[in-house]
TrEMBL record:
GO molecular function: ATP binding; isopentenyl phosphate kinase activity; kinase activity
Binding site residues for substrate: 115, 120, 221
Annotated source species: Rhynchospora pubera
EC number in record: 2.7.4.26
Native organism taxonomy: Eukaryota, Viridiplantae, Streptophyta, Embryophyta, Tracheophyta
Single GO cellular component term: cytosol
Listed name of the protein: Isopentenyl phosphate kinase
Pfam families: AA_kinase
Catalytic reactions of this protein: isopentenyl phosphate + ATP = isopentenyl diphosphate + ADP
Region (Disordered): 1-26
Length: 348
């Protein structure tokens, strides 16, 4: 049977409006200020299935709001949906107008969050990360994983919106992102660019996606943030975690030493420059020695190295502290010796 070829449309754009320009052809009015990675272990209770760390999430919202708008004026709450059986809370929408707080809001940020206690259980039980959608279990697990991680994304978006931050959720799967052998194969960032230009704060997350070789897999937030850094070249990138930074051994070890500054060479090798003690002994190999209690720090360091090679400083620090607020405000280098965290930068 001969295949039926689709007819070409003599007028593919009947409304006469030009198609959107590719991301590379457009630019923000000001350079992207920051990309923020909210670690899953920092914003969820990692030992409780699908449990949000409300205190840390609240702190993130408050600090991000302060970084976006140093003035003390409170923003307009934007979560107007019903929740917890209560009546719809519209807030004082009469205050919204042309002279609203929006004029002073620097929303030039992108946020990416991990899954923490959301999604990992569903993915590991079904083997979604290994691929094989022909299996009913994997297919069901793919759906279950996405339900879990998108519910966390919605909770984070709502928390930010209640604080007056114009957050919009952008699940990678729904935006058409895909992988091949777990490496990003397709990642259309035009919607992210359009949202930034419109004054929104895109909120992405680790997600279950289609893989051209494996059928499906898990696209981690750390890989997403590295790809976005390559596309948007922000001034700096921040990883907010449940520990103060990168240590030479598990932070629970009483002898653990915080690695304050790491430089990445052109060939991708690493050197610890602060503290000098480690440098003097034997030069720590970060990819081997550094980790946190979740075992996920090594992956963060690997992605941070690629970002640092672009000439973008990476800050890793603990969520909900004065040091995370300084990082969000871009004030780390004003007094780096007084800042508690890890700086990863290029040696150039």
């Amino acid at each position: 049977m001969e295949a039926v070829q689709p007819k070409s449309d003599p007028n593919p754009n009947p409304l006469g409006t030009p198609p959107p320009a590719p991301v590379g052809a457009r630019s923000l009015q000001t350079p992207l200020r920051c990309i923020i990675k909210l670690g899953g272990a920092a914003i969820t209770n990692k030992y409780e299935l699908e449990s949000i760390n409300k205190a840390n999430l609240s702190s993130v919202c408050e600090q991000l709001r302060e970084a976006m708008m140093p003035q003390s004026e409170k923003g307009i709450g934007m979560d107007w949906s019903r929740r917890d059986g209560n009546e719809i809370e519209l807030g004082d929408i009469s205050k919204i107008g042309e002279s609203s707080v929006r004029n002073g809001l620097n929303s030039n940020f992108i946020v990416v969050h991990g899954a923490g206690s959301f999604g990992h259980f569903q993915a590991s039980k079904s083997g979604v990360h290994k691929g094989g959608l022909h299996s009913p279990l994997v297919q069901a697990g793919f759906v279950a994983t996405r339900i879990s991680v998108t519910s966390l994304n919605l909770a984070i978006v709502r928390a930010l919106a209640r604080g007056g931050i114009p957050a919009v959720g952008m699940p990678p799967f729904a935006c058409g992102w895909s992988t091949r052998q777990r490496d990003i194969a397709s990642a259309d960032a035009s919607q992210i660019m359009d949202s930034l230009l419109a004054g929104f704060v895109p909120i992405l997350h680790g997600d279950a996606v289609l893989d051209h070789a494996l059928d499906c897999t898990i696209l981690s937030g750390d890989v997403i943030i590295r790809h976005l850094a390559e596309l948007f070249t922000p001034k700096y990138v921040i990883f907010l975690t449940d520990v103060h930074g990168v240590y030479d051994r598990p932070p629970s070890d009483p002898d653990a030493v915080l690695l304050k500054e790491i430089v990445v060479k052109e060939d991708g090798s690493w050197t610890v420059v602060k503290p000098d003690l480690l440098q003097a002994e034997k030069g720590v190999e970060i990819t081997v020695a550094a980790h946190d209690t979740t075992g996920g720090m090594e992956a963060k360091i690997s992605e941070a190295a690629i970002i640092a090679k672009l000439g973008i400083d990476v800050y890793i620090t603990k969520v909900g502290t004065e040091y995370s607020l300084r990082a969000l405000k871009g004030q780390v280098h004003e007094n780096p010796d007084d800042w508690l965290g890890t700086i990863i930068r290029s040696d150039k």
